[in-house]
Known about the structure:
Layout: E1 2-5, E2 10-13, E3 21-26, H1 37-55, E4 59-64, H2 71-80, H3 84-101, H4 117-129, E5 133-135, E6 142-144, E7 178-183, E8 201-203, H5 205-217, E9 220-227, H6 231-244, E10 249-256, E11 259-261, E12 264-265, H7 276-282, H8 285-293, E13 301-303, H9 307-329, H10 345-352, H11 357-376, H12 380-396, H13 402-405, H14 410-431, H15 435-447, E14 450-455, E15 458-463
Parallel strand pairs: 3-4, 3-9, 9-10, 11-13
Antiparallel strand pairs: 1-2, 5-6, 6-7, 7-8, 11-12, 14-15
Helix pairs in contact: 2-3, 4-5, 5-6, 8-9, 9-11, 9-12, 10-11, 11-12, 14-15
The protein binds zinc ion.
Amino acid sequence: MKLFDTRLGELREFEPQQRGVVGMYVCGPTVQSEPHIGHLRSALVYDLLAGWLRASGNKVTVVRNVTDIDDKVLEKARETGTQYWELAHRNEALFAADYRRLNLELPSVEPRATGHIPQMLALIEKLVDSGHAYQVEGSADVYFDTSSWSRYGELTHQKLEDMESEETGGGKRAAQDFALWKSAKPGEPEGAAWESRFGRGRPGWHIECSAMATHYLGESFDIHGGGLDLRFPHHENELAQSSAAGHGFANYWIHNGLVSIAGQKMSKSLGNTVSSSDLFALATPQAVRYYLASAHYRSVLDYQPGVLQEAEAALERLHGFLARAQRELAETQYSEMDHGAGLPDAFVAEMNDDLNIPAALAVIHDSVTSGNTALDEQQLKQAAEHRSEVHKMLSVLGLAPDQWSSGASEEHQALDALVRELIAERNRAREEKNFEVADRIRDQLLASGIELSDSASGTHWSLS
Ligand SMILES: [Zn+2]
């Protein structure tokens, strides 16, 4: 498989450091607010990458952190009069619910920054002791000394003197130096600071990821992923401090493209943020997953009105073929799906080409076209082959129909069967213009807390 490695700026053959075993660290969200479309896209990209590496026979460990303390979290907590840990915890739960809705595989571990302060301090101490970091006199502030690390800038191919700095002043020796440990400030909550040999304080954002990645994956591991906006300074700084500490750190640096909204950068000031609840209100979770996966992971995903309906229609076409094949092959010798069937070479080639999912989806659509033609022409063997193939490819992308129904509880399934039967009875009554019966069924359901809504695609029910 080839992957685009940001550090080398080119496609590289992917080889894990240990054959068949992959360790991947993904920068997770800073949980100061609810998830938006960009968060979901980023999480899905690494879910698809991990899924493909697993489908290719690797054992994959995924570490996706939760930044539950940093400036942004503390500021939002102050604004809203909440404890920062309550704000972080509540938002983390919203992220988890959306990840589940999107059918993302649970990472191997989701470490929270606040749970790994000792690991961060150990790394900071190592950097100070080896002369790559310094403490500001009369303060607990510790900075990474960028002048001590000649490779600084290697990830984003920048020279030290051309770089923009985060902030200046406060005892920093150079504008590009960045905070490893920030002293506790008056007005900050008591619980947002920890004792250390430098004094009371809290970690800088960058050191959090370096420490957690190394704690779970070792000093050297295979893949580090995150959004393109994290390349600089976040990932540049992670790489510098970990390398300066003597760690091999990540072997491949993968970055996913960002999301734009109708051609514009998504930002709070423009007021064009698309939240995950906006997305899930407009389409099924399957269609949201299809849509978010449909652009190449390195390109900008431009959100426009109507794109989810297009995704829904495209997915319906794929699922429609599977349902049709199931129906038309039911009474034949091909009634059983061949789960042992392999993936088509074209699909494998596209997935191995820097995870080219748009092209892989085109392979699935082609197979559906051929499968439908085979059914039209009663070529059952070919139709059955396409059915197995399509199902297998969709499974790799987390889009096969049977990967979504299993989430429903047995109670839900039983209730669904009952309500559907009543909906069918109501439809019959309406056809016969027996509106008394039709209304009685609707009212009975409503009295039990079940609401019906009629639309062009049929009648759907939900708990009222
Ligand atoms: Zn990070």
